[in-house]
Amino acid sequence: MRVRIKLLAAAEMPPGFDQFGEREMDLPAGASLADAMADISLPAEETYTSLVGGQAVQADARAGHALSDGDEVTLLPAIQGG
To answer: What is the CATH number of the domain that holds 45?
Structure first.
């Protein structure tokens, strides 16, 4: 199956993403959101908000959230500052 990943506001773009922070991924049928995120070289020290098709998926639900062909995943790192 093929999904589109959008990574917003990343300090550094991981390999495979274009200049707009987008990447298409081929994943096996039944792959979860957690599987997709594990395939991306995201900094371990960052936390991310995740959306699938515009709907939020909580961090503790990612492993059980199966993706479907054509899904759009949006990842947004926590923004800190003050």
So the answer is: 3.10.20.30
Residue 49 burial (CB < 10 Å; 0-12/13-18/19+)? middle
Q: How confident is the model at residue 9 (pLDDT cuts 50, 70, 90)?
A: confident
Residue 60: inside a domain, yes or no?
yes
pTM above 0.70, yes or no: yes
Q: How confident is the model at residue 82 (pLDDT cuts 50, 70, 90)?
A: low
Rounded to whole angstroms, the Cα distance separating 63 from 78 reads 20
Q: Which letter, b or e, does each residue of 13-43 get, where b requires 16 or more Cβ atoms within 10 Å of its Cβ? A: eeeebeeebbbebebeeebbbbbbbebbebe
Mark out the alpha helices in 30-79 (DSSP H runs): 33-38
The number of folded domains in the chain is 1
